[in-house]
Amino acid sequence: MVRKYTKEDLPQMIKIWNEVVGEGNAFPQEEELDMKSGAEFFASQSYTGVAVESESVVGVYILHPNNVGRCGHICNASYAVLKHARGRRIGEQLVIDCMKQAKKLGFQILQFNAVVKSNTMARRVYERLGFKQIGTISNGFRMKDGHYEDICPYFREL
């Protein structure tokens, strides 16, 4: 089940977010969240959703504008799934809910700016859900070990 997050979810959400940040192969962030910065970060989004299984948060997503003004109808999102819960289509559930919430908020396009080319699981989900790859940005993402990988921006009309 995917639903809007509550304050009670924050410890699990922060753990999941920090797990992905620490892996250093998907999110551009390098600094981990603590309870204060995590509460502020998740509250500042247009929408934050969580995937819950057996009363435990196993995934989280954030949704926010990708730009302002004349491009304000385009949104952006990030998804994180607990490492031991991956491979069970939780990420796909998060993306589907995100698209519904984005549409409710008046967004018309969902765009991902920096999908790491080697993140094949995420790319398969996006393509299965109708996202189109815009192109490739060579060496657009610095991996945790310092080498650079290509990024593949994606978009989908809502």
TrEMBL record:
Q: Which PROSITE patterns match?
A: GNAT (PS51186)
Please list the GO terms describing molecular function.
acyltransferase activity, transferring groups other than amino-acyl groups
Q: Write out the entry's keywords from A to Z.
A: Acyltransferase, Transferase
Protein's name according to its UniProt entry: L-amino acid N-acyltransferase YncA
Keyword Transferase applies: yes
Q: Which lineage do the record's taxonomy fields give for this organism?
A: Bacteria, Bacillati, Bacillota, Clostridia, Eubacteriales
| Signal peptide range | none
Q: Which InterPro entries does this UniProt record tie to the protein?
A: Acyl_CoA_acyltransferase, GNAT_dom, Mito_N-acetyltransferase
Cite a single Pfam family from the UniProt record: Acetyltransf_1
- List the Gene3D superfamilies hit by this protein, alphabetically: 3.40.630.30
Which residues does the UniProt record annotate as the domain N-acetyltransferase?
1-155
Q: What top-level branch of life does the organism fall under?
A: Bacteria
